Automatic annotation (TrEMBL):
The lineage of its organism: Bacteria, Pseudomonadati, Pseudomonadota, Gammaproteobacteria, Aeromonadales. This is Multidrug transporter. It holds the Pfam family Multi_Drug_Res. It comes from Oceanisphaera psychrotolerans. Keywords: Cell membrane, Membrane, Transmembrane, Transmembrane helix, Transport. It comes from the Bacteria. The keyword RNA-binding does not apply. One of its GO terms (cellular component) is plasma membrane.
């Protein structure tokens, strides 16, 4: 839920036109507030590095997908490769790292 709130807020950030449009601006503030509150709750049980890796990796991919849909911003091949590497990095952490072990 924290990631979803952050992705919605980040996507609305462009629509806010530099905070000159009220509706999208309110969505940005509410979305980021909710996202950080929920991320704080997650960090009670998940190590900071793991939580942030998942947060940032998923956020990058999801924001890019929404940017394609809403703003017609199509990533080029290097961008797609980079996002693939980020996803691979998060997967490596989840699958093999001992940092998240309790």
């Amino acid at each position: 839920m924290a990631i979803a709130a952050e992705v919605i807020a980040t996507t609305a950030l462009k629509a806010s036109a530099g905070f000159s449009r009220l509706g999208p601006s309110l969505l940005v503030v509410a979305g980021y507030g909710t996202a950080f509150w929920l991320l704080g709750l997650v960090m009670n049980t998940v190590p900071v590095g793991i939580a942030y890796a998942i947060w940032s990796g998923a956020g990058i991919v999801l924001v890019t997908l929404l940017a394609v849909l809403f703003y017609r911003q199509i990533p080029d091949l290097p961008a797609l490769i980079g996002m693939g590497l980020i996803i691979a990095g998060v997967a490596v952490i989840q699958l093999w790292s001992k940092i998240g072990a309790h």
